[in-house]
Design brief:
The chain is α+β, with helices and mostly antiparallel strands and about 160 residues long. About 40% of the residues lie in helices and about 35% in strands.
Length: about 160
């Protein structure tokens, strides 16, 4: 009887082991100096996505509209161009990417949770009072042609620093 139970349990244990080993493991790596963790299936694509998010935030810091738009899907350029032109005229901010969590990764789509810090640049005018803050944003990136681009950003939390 005990031998029969062992024989029956062995395939179940083997199946569970295979499922566990096939599942991507969460580990912290560093890309461009940014801690990256989560369900990483393709490290190369994640590294490209982190570079795009860093370029996007640097373009926002530099008020470089063409570089900012270059990080976005083409369909977002027209609407984003007028919104960001006004935003860049009104505010002088610095943006810093703090960490990335890979929430979902597929060959043509990625969902990343980015933690970032946004602060006023000291000594520069602001149209209105702007509050320094930490925020989390979920960024959906998709492949447009053979390049990763930001398709959507949803702010999920904000903590004010001042």
């Amino acid at each position: 009887m005990k031998k029969n139970r062992r024989i029956l349990l062995m395939p179940l244990i083997l199946l569970l082991l295979i499922i566990y080993l096939a599942k991507p493991q969460a580990a912290t790596a560093y890309t461009e100096g940014i801690p990256v963790f989560g369900s990483i299936h393709n490290q190369d694509d994640v590294e490209i996505a982190v570079k795009i998010l860093k370029q996007n935030l640097q373009a926002a810091t530099d008020k470089d509209l063409p570089a900012y738009l270059n990080s976005l899907v083409t369909s977002a350029h027209n609407e984003t161009s007028s919104d960001m032109s006004q935003f860049f005229a009104d505010y002088n901010l610095s943006h810093e990417l703090l960490s990335i969590e890979v929430l979902d990764q597929q060959p043509e789509r990625m969902l990343l949770k980015a933690s970032q810090r946004t602060k006023k640049k000291k000594g520069l005018p602001q149209k209105e009072r702007y509050r320094d803050h930490l925020s989390d944003a979920n960024h959906t990136l998709i492949k447009e042609g053979n390049q990763w681009k930001i398709a959507e950003t949803v702010m999920t939390s904000t903590s004010f620093l001042d």
